[in-house]
Write a structure and sequence with these properties.
With 219 residues, this protein is an alpha+beta fold. It is built from four helices and nine strands. The protein has a domain of 123 residues. The chain is elongated.
Length: 219
């Protein structure tokens, strides 16, 4: 077997692992505070927290997902904020990412050892993902491959307040880490996580893994 085929054969399990991780869904942390009224004829409108997003096609797409969930729960959509009993405010985004480095044994290198993992804080300095000395890749025979990739944190912030007195009745934050920073792919998953078990227990933080849409549809 040629060297290139040997490399591909060894790389295949790692590729399958990455693909399976994507296929299983987006692990999301959801925090909610609420005193939502049970549906009894209340109406709502969905607005952007950031005025720059209001009226954009992208915001309209995400607002439509929230609208579908609220209607499915028994609330009705109002034609304007003046006629609505509830105002839903949305914000969303993704950060610039942070680097993650993984050291794993080189199957073609001498010696053996175990992989060590390192996480870098948003503002922290890089640290080497292995211990110096025993099977040190920079001393002696080495035998480690170093891989790095970027992890992004995305979020969906959703607040609901009564129009009659401005009282907040729901405050929710959904956050997820992924290797993608594509909001059109991430925000629908965040919305789905936000409405899983909605409105939830006030003050509780839960972890929800959203099944990919194609799997929910049986594709």
């Amino acid at each position: 077997m040629s060297m290139s085929k040997r490399l591909l054969a060894l790389a295949a399990p790692f590729a399958l692992l990455a693909l399976s991780a994507c296929a299983t869904g987006l692990p999301t942390q959801v925090q909610r505070f609420q005193m939502m009224p049970a549906p009894s004829g209340q109406s709502f409108v969905v607005q952007a927290k950031d005025p720059e997003n209001q009226g954009s096609l992208e915001f309209a797409q995400y607002a439509g997902l929230v609208r579908q969930h609220l209607i499915g729960l028994g609330y009705s959509e109002a034609s304007s904020s003046q006629q609505a009993s509830l105002v839903v405010e949305l914000d969303y985004g993704v950060d610039d990412g942070r680097e993650r480095v993984v050291a794993r044994p080189d199957p073609f290198g001498p010696g053996w050892g175990f992989p060590y993992y390192s996480r870098f804080g948003y503002f922290g300095r890089h640290r080497y993902p292995f211990y110096w000395g025993w099977h040190d890749p920079f001393w002696g025979s080495g035998g480690y491959d170093i891989d790095s990739y970027t992890v992004y944190t995305s979020y969906l912030d959703m607040d609901i307040r009564r129009t009659a007195d401005g009282q907040s009745v729901f405050e929710g934050l959904a956050q997820a880490r992924s290797r993608s920073n594509e909001l059109p792919a991430l925000v629908p998953n965040l919305v789905e996580a936000m409405f899983t078990g909605f409105p939830g227990n006030s003050g509780e933080t839960v972890r929800i893994t959203v099944t990919p849409e194609r799997e929910r549809r049986g594709g």
